[in-house]
Fold:
Amino acid sequence: MASNKHRAVWDWLQSCPYVGDLFFNAMTDKIGGTCLVPSEQLTEEYIDGSEKRNYNCALTRFQAFSGDPNDMANITAVTDLEELGDWVRKQVLTGNLPAFPEGCRITDIRVLPNESGYMVAQDFSQAKYMIQFQIEYIREAADGEDETEPGGGGTEEDEPNGEEPGGDEPGDTDPANNNETEE
Structure:
């Protein structure tokens, strides 16, 4: 088990044969290196203080770029990223997930669609390519966060990323877990 989520994903990606040199959050424009750029998102806050969160990962890589006709360099670059995405999917199917720290339980990992293509920037000799995946997980309530009053919803403070906590508005409750009727 890793000491933090960043280290857990880093260690997990180190076992991928399609990664090569791995950088975290910043890299040089050296061809072939892969950079992990994470972000975090709160998606649901529960009455017991636990949270559903997304750990979003962008993997960027500089590869050779060619504007020449009949050159396979661009196909090779895209194929390399697709193999990395296939590796992530295979790890999920076999249960080989990042070892998130205690109190965090991964519920899903999915490769996100590349609707605008894999290439995100280019110059005359190389291009920056990117693939993204998302790790959905539950972060358990820290000791002392568990509410004892019925209907308690945790604190009213904003999350560090600016998102408002959810689940405290009428109608936000799970219909399977309450006896309210819809109007």
User: Anything to note?
Assistant: The chain has one domain: 5-141.
